[in-house]
Amino acid sequence: MYICVDFDGTIVDHCYPDIGRPVPGAIEWMKKWMRHDAKLILYTMRADGNSAGKVLTEAVDYLREYHLHFFGVNHNPDQAEWSNSPKVYANIYVDDSALGCPLIQPKGFRRPCVDWSKVGPEVEGILKGSRGKRVSGAVGSRLGKIIGK
Q1: pLDDT in tens, 59-107
Q2: Is the peptide bond before 106 cis (omega within 30 degrees of 0)?
Q3: What single DSSP character describes residue 50?
Q4: Under DSSP, is residue 8 helix (H, G, I), strand (E, B) or coil?
Q5: What residues have CB less than 8 Å from 95, skipping those under 6 apart?
Q6: Phi/psi of residue 10, each to 5°?
């Protein structure tokens, strides 16, 4: 299963162009998902070659320090086989800016960020239940249920 994960506000605090502190639970949950054979794709607005420097490379290097090696960075390598669309294909997108994504405000963080205590187990449950199955668009409604909507 392909899972796109944003960087700022999802994996780390919003401190662009710097890299903020890790969002509580983010690193641990992504490692768990990878143990369930999830293919994680870093899906971020960070890019190299602008006035901020090599901010995308720095983000990828930061994740490697935590032994997180992403299947793709701002693209899905398998997608070229069947589409030339610039939109990155995934079964699930985890992003602090996504409608309905549970958020928390950790002490000392600049802005709210993803609540991994809710998103982590929900996605893990989907991964456990989807072995060999195609996941439908039910992810958003399931996340809505866990945040009380």
Answers
A1: 999 999 999 999 999 999 999 899 999 999 999 999 999 999 999 999 9
A2: no
A3: B
A4: strand
A5: 4, 5, 6, 9, 10, 43, 101, 114
A6: -115, -50
**Residue 87 CB neighbours (<10 A):** 9
SS3 letters for 54-111?
Answer: CHHHHHHHHHHHCCCCCCEECCCCCHHHCCCCCCCCCCEEECCCCCCCCEECCCCCCC
> For the chain, what is the mean pLDDT?
89
38-77 as b/e, with b when 16 or more CB fall inside 10 Å?
bbbbbbbebeeeeeeeebbebbbeebeeeebebbbbbbbe
Q: What are phi and psi of 135, to 5 degrees?
A: -85, 135
